[in-house]
Design a protein that fits this description.
two-stranded antiparallel ribbon, 2 strands
């Protein structure tokens, strides 16, 4: 393995780890939905391309349920797993392919 290959492997590993840590920080793997992330689609595409996420992974929805009767209140958390809509999967595939093609072009020197 040449020195340039070692350096390129280190750069690729750095990109993988930064993608994974960004997804962890935003709670992507916990089923949370960050609302203020401008580049969420790119991050999800990168996670799918790296094999960290799959298109068939169900989306988890949690909602609190509360019942009040008189002075007594009961609350519970309801969790539901829904499959990802096909349109979102198709959009992520097209986005990932366009990023792959765009990234494979050599920049002018």
């Amino acid at each position: 393995m040449t020195t340039s290959n070692i350096v390129l492997d280190l750069i690729e590993a750095f990109r993988w780890s930064k993608t994974m840590f960004a997804a962890v920080e935003l709670g992507i793997f916990d089923g949370k939905r960050p609302v203020d992330c401008k580049e969420l689609v790119r991050l999800l595409d990168a996670c799918v391309a790296l094999g960290l996420l799959a298109f068939l992974t169900p989306i988890t929805h949690s909602s609190p349920q509360t019942f009040q009767a008189g002075g007594i209140g009961i609350s519970a958390q309801q969790t539901e797993h829904r499959p990802m809509p096909g349109a979102i999967g198709a959009f992520l595939i097209v986005g990932g392919l366009s990023m792959m093609v765009g990234g494979s072009r050599e920049s002018p020197k």
